[in-house]
Amino acid sequence: MNKRMEHFERFPSQEKVAKLLLKHGLRVHDGRAWCGEIELSDTALGRAAGVDRRVVKAALETIQSDPSLFNLFSNLRSTPLFSEVASLLGGSSIEIIPDDAQTPGILADVAGAMADAGISIRQALVDDPEMSDEPRLYVITETPVPPEMLPKIKECRGVKSILIH
Hints:
Blueprint: H1 2-5, H2 12-24, E1 27-29, E2 32-35, E3 38-40, H3 42-49, H4 53-65, H5 67-73, E4 93-98, H6 106-116, E5 121-126, E6 137-141, H7 150-154, E7 159-164
Antiparallel strand pairs: 1-2, 2-3, 4-6, 4-7, 5-6
Helix pairs in contact: 2-3, 2-4, 3-4, 4-5
């Protein structure tokens, strides 16, 4: 990821736009930014990135004109995160704070503990350590997680702490 972002080294404002696109899974097509089938305005993106709309336009042109950047940004897809509405859907949302987000197997161990307890996972999402200062693992379950499961999850590889929402 960092190698592709080198294209923006001399243009920090454009880099803000590129990072915003990556963070939210916004794709670039025909020189415009899209969230699924919803076209986003340069002004709205500029406001969100803290830059002028002209910087957004320049960043989109940069992405569109470079094949490796375009290949990345034209294939992004946004994903809804159900962590804030899990209880409304009848389940639980567990936020895992890792000791080190680069540790292999955190998700596997947590999912295994859930499976052993007969708890079905509706969604699992991991923040990209390169895109987030404090990456997290979000596990949304079909049913509420019983309190006695928390120590088992805490014992999983790489788990520093747990937040229940």
